[in-house]
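Project standup — Tuesday

K.O.: blocked on the structure for the chain from last sprint. Re-posting the sequence here as requested.
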Amino acid sequence: MSGGAESGTGPGAATCDAPKKQTISSPGPVTVRVAGPSESPIMKPSHVSIGVAILAVSAFFFAGLPGISGDEGYAGLSPRFVPTLVAIGLAVCGALLTWQGVRGGFRNMPEEDAELPSAPHNFKGFLWVALGLVANMALIGTLGFVFSSTLMMVCVARGYGSRRIVRDALIGLLITVPMWALFEFLLGINLPLLPVAGF
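H.V.: unblocked you, prediction finished:
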């Protein structure tokens, strides 16, 4: 009896020595959804609005170009040269961002920033910042560089939640006055100080 078990010829030994089968449970079929050629990407309104806003700023730059002298100025370049480059660059960037927003969102964004909300977090703040930029471009020929830029800084600060208009205006003056002096006296570039008063 024991010899048969040890030699592996007994029925009991055959049962003990048989390999055990391992059963692996399947989690079920996995479905992978692949977008077909007929499916269009979902437009992201928040991304599109950023592109459209940049296009609007570019349009304001182009609208102001006829009011800038085309004669050669500092370093042999026309005063229109840099504003024209800025307007073209803004137009290209705005068009690309708008197209990407329509085609499903901005490309190559960090994963944590890939999903933006469908609407801006603070639309009123966005309007204040946009108002400051537009006001600066519209009033620089009347109020001059210092005051139009200061007004822009007050509007931007208001867009970010500040309600201290006097403090923000004083900070704006402390920034814009040295900048005006730098261009006027050091670089020899004439920036209008207060055109409405003849300066």
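K.O.: great, moving the ticket to review. Residues 122-199 form one domain. Residues 1-8, 12-16, 28-37 have pLDDT under 50 and may be disordered.
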